[in-house]
Design a protein that fits this description.
The complex is a heterotetramer, with two copies of chain A and two copies of chain B. By secondary structure, chain A is an alpha/beta fold. Chain A is built from ten helices and 15 strands. Chain A is about 30% helix and about 25% strand. In chain A, strands 1, 2, 3, 4, 7, 11, 12, 13, 14 and 15 form a ten-stranded mixed sheet that branches. Chain A has a three-stranded antiparallel sheet with strand order 8-10-9, covered by helices on one side. Chain A has a two-stranded antiparallel sheet with strand order 5-6. Chain B starts with 9 loop residues before the first helix and ends in an 8-residue tail after the last helix. The chains are: A alpha/beta, B alpha/beta. At the A-B interface, strand 6, helix 4, helix 5 and helix 8 of A face helix 3, helix 4, strand 9 and helix 5 of B.
Chain lengths: ~280, ~270, ~280, ~270
């Protein structure tokens, strides 16, 4: 059953060296606080899975924690490239990193198959695309009725998935709303799931019945971390810190500047520091 | 004739020419790097009911300011509905509901094949670019593809380094030979010209030069030998309304995003 | 683009003899008014698709309108058997009827594949089940990564789907809420879709962003028919008429009683009669 | 010893015995024809946090009255969340999240195979029954299957007419041979007895007789030669609390559904 834990305990109890892990969020609700906690605890040899790796994976890769990355868009959203990831791929710094690259459709279908307990996903994809030639995890199946050849990719089944969400109720059910992305599938596909939330409310009784609610028994641990998705945003709580994304482009361009920033803003900080970072971004709700 | 504005930039011309190509009935998938400015100018001028879909799951959005990312809250706030990412790619894109997929490009060849993955060799790249995101399937599941990019010899090349998304391949009926039933790239709009594929060869051919642009300028900023149609036209300059709409949109965008500020030092 | 039409015109303009048609609804939101209009207009040679055929298909089959039925549960929900359908299958009365039978998982996946534009669906199903031996539309595919053999069924692609929903806005977007069943997939899988709604409201601006809304351009026609799902129910408007389901068991048990009931309650009535049928079932909203 | 109620019906005993088999941590898929009464008595007595899932898409329901169909509004009103039917069958059932699938049966054989499809030949049936609904995949995707039915020679037969859902097939390791990794039927609760499959043969064997029931009665209402375990027990009679909970639930249900009335004559 789900446990409400401090983030440090939730991360320590659910992530291990060598794990295949997904910190998911599609521009919205990126679990930055959880990722920073994982960085502080210094895990290594991780296989990082995410459709849009974003700043937190740039940081983990820059810190040398990843042996492999599985992704479909390796960018700083709205800004450009991810410079630490580039340095690892182009120069093997701080260590070489294995790359498994898909399209968004490929990753979305692979997560869906993971949530659905299937060994693989089937879809109409990768036709004429170069990825099919360089990624051995892109194969084909034939429709037994029409003969049409469709793409197949293995299901994604992370050891553990981390997401950030708006709120939990006291029983440990979790609400995700707004741009819901791939989070539900990433949680249901994983062996274990850790959720950071903005707040805990008494009950979800008044919620509309068709919202995206993850029942408590699908989650391993919940940690309350207000501001935990900064510099991404949490719909209904605070807006995106666009300036921080622009700033990251500069910080990540330089190896030393990166290390200094990580030391000051991640290593020497805690999850409790996130609340202050979003104070000026809170919306009039 | 509509009223003309004397001063406009090539980029403004590009965005406005692209916006004109969109129809009120279009269902437009605005992919990574694509000019959502063009889509929103269309929506704010001649195509008020155009359906704009961003791959983050927002369907029928009408943002007041341009999103900085494909997952901005503004897109969700103004959408008819917001669905999950698997549903977006399965029901809406693969389901064949998109009339226009709008793509940008880091590298483009004359057959509309696009590279946004790597410069150099895939396994040992000179520059690792962000990759395709939704583009590989946008390129094959949308009924038509519009491409927009500023011209440069580095961007418009004879041979791209990687087929992130498939256009007309080697030209001719290459799409059909791969079992792809959609039309692929039917329009390329740059900062200098409007291009359409030749009916047979599928090679992009200039059909209209933007005001004041010469054939030589188009060739000088393109890495392949450019073909021009016999009936070459001049793109009508932006109208005052088009320019005002675009500039107001960009001003609103700048004001809104400036408001977020950066994290205060601890 | 969607048109707001009287139900008689919406049905006449979108249904044809010989069509493959789905009147969907999973206990909730059954499009009874639309089905009765189709009965009044006397279409024939229909292939009727539905997970849970329910009273309206019992009625269409009893009226001899169907040449084939595709289904996964042929019951009167909460009561028992469908007696007109039984008479057709067991005795060929009023005409023989072809049967294509699936499991719920098979039908749900087949609709999903239809909505997703795929030729077939793949899932872990029918293992050891007798249907796999009697339904030639149940085949297999092998996972190209694990070798696991999975079930495959053709996608469902109706010529036209009819559903009932809570409301439309003036632009023709449609909201479905509560037990949403398979309706979204049934609409998106179909070439044409007709929706009956309880009411039209000015705008959906205040709706939660993650509700099940079908955009106007996915729908062919909308008809306003208050009470249009009776004796099923419409969440937020009126409750299920359980007595009518029990009563149907008697009516349908006898060929003459059935004909008399159809004459009095369907043939001689119109869509406008549905509102009065739910008056005593309306909930305090 | 808990207090006992002297008078109870065999059906009440069946429902209460079934409810006792459910644990607080169970995630129970209540399929067509299954006794949701048992699941809800469990929830209202010893298993307050049990998760009840109905195939209409309602997850974690806590109905105050028993639903007449698997899609009653009450199920949605009291659910933690209500999802679409494809999601229900893909993410929740096929995803391996169900601990107990609870099935009823029109025809059952001694290996837990169930028929609710046809009596007689499939193509020319004597009686066309409703069919399987969710049962074929509930039977193979749930970790365990509990079956409950009132005994009769017509219902409990040597050979069923159609394999609507697969139990242990011909017994032994038949499930494993078909690549089915779940346990299948592990419990049968009738109005007369509690049965469990033999560890090797997988044949249902009586392990407990309900109070006052004889071996002869069990055999007289069963179409196959019944095996009894050596250590045969007597099922504890319903407690006062169990009986009151069940009867109150049924009274509330009757009152609520009587309220709907039938359509008034025009």
């Amino acid at each position: 059953m789900v446990k409400f834990l401090p983030l440090s305990e939730a991360v320590a109890g659910n992530l291990n060296d060598g794990d295949t892990v997904a910190f998911e969020g599609f521009t919205h609700l990126i679990p930055t606080a959880a990722a920073h906690e994982a960085i502080r605890q210094g895990f290594g040899e991780l296989t990082l899975i995410r459709m849009t790796p974003d700043l937190v994976y740039d940081q983990m890769i820059g810190m040398g924690m990843a042996r492999k990355i599985v992704f479909s868009y390796l960018g700083n959203p709205g800004v450009g490239l991810l410079r630490r990831a580039r340095d690892a791929i182009e120069n093997g710094f701080p260590r070489p990193i294995e790359v498994e690259e898909h399209s968004h459709a490929g990753m979305a279908n692979a997560y869906e198959a993971g949530a659905a307990g299937l060994p693989c996903a089937m879809f109409r994809g990768y036709r004429g695309a170069g990825l099919a030639a360089v990624n051995p995890n892109i194969k084909t199946v034939s429709c037994p009725f029409t003969g049409e050849v469709l793409a197949a990719v293995p299901a994604i089944r992370p050891d553990v998935t981390f997401i950030h969400a708006q709120k939990a109720d006291r029983k440990g059910n979790v609400l995700v709303e707004g741009i819901i992305g791939i989070q539900k599938e990433a949680v249901l596909a994983a062996k274990r799931a850790v959720v950071t939330v903005e707040e805990v409310v008494d009950s979800f009784d008044e919620l509309h019945p068709n919202l995206t609610v993850l029942p408590s028994w699908t989650i391993s641990a919940i940690s309350v971390v207000p501001g935990g998705s900064h510099p991404s945003y949490t719909h209904g709580y605070y807006i995106r810190d666009n300036a921080a994304y622009l700033e990251w482009d500069e910080i990540s361009a330089d190896r030393e500047k990166f290390q200094a920033w990580m030391q000051a803003n991640v290593i020497e900080k805690t999850a409790a520091d996130f609340a202050a970072r979003v104070e000026h971004l809170r919306t009039a709700a | 004739m509509s009223e003309r504005e004397p001063g406009f930039t090539p980029n403004e011309m590009m965005t406005i020419a692209a916006s004109r190509a969109l129809k009120n009935e279009d269902v437009c998938f605005v992919g990574i790097g694509a000019p959502s400015a063009a889509c929103n100018v269309a929506r704010l001028t001649h195509a008020p009911d155009i359906t704009l879909i961003y791959e983050s799951g927002t369907i029928g959005t009408a943002p007041q300011v341009l999103p900085l990312s494909i997952g901005d809250g503004e897109l969700c706030d103004t959408a008819v509905t917001t669905v999950s990412v698997p549903e977006m790619f399965r029901y809406w894109l693969q389901g064949g509901r998109i009339s226009i997929g709008f793509l940008g490009a880091a590298q483009l060849d004359k057959f509309g094949n696009i590279n946004t993955t790597v410069i150099g060799d895939y396994l040992h790249p000179k520059t690792r670019l962000p990759g395709g995101g939704g583009a590989p399937e946008i390129a094959t599941s949308s009924k038509e593809i519009y491409i927009t990019m500023a011209q440069s010899k580095r961007g418009m090349v004879e041979t791209i380094d990687f087929y992130t998304s498939f256009g007309h391949g080697e030209g001719g009926d290459h799409r059909k030979r791969l079992g792809i039933e959609t039309s692929g790239p039917t329009l390329l709009i740059t900062d200098l010209a409007i291009w359409k594929p030749d009916l047979d060869t599928k090679e992009f051919t200039v059909v209209s030069l933007h005001p004041g642009v010469s054939r030589a300028e188009v060739q000088a900023t393109c890495g392949w030998t450019v073909k021009f149609t016999d009936a070459l036209e001049e793109t009508p300059a932006p109208t005052a309304l088009e320019l005002k709409t675009l500039r107001d949109l960009q001003a609103r965008t700048k004001a809104a995003h400036a408001g977020t500020g950066k994290e205060k030092a601890a």
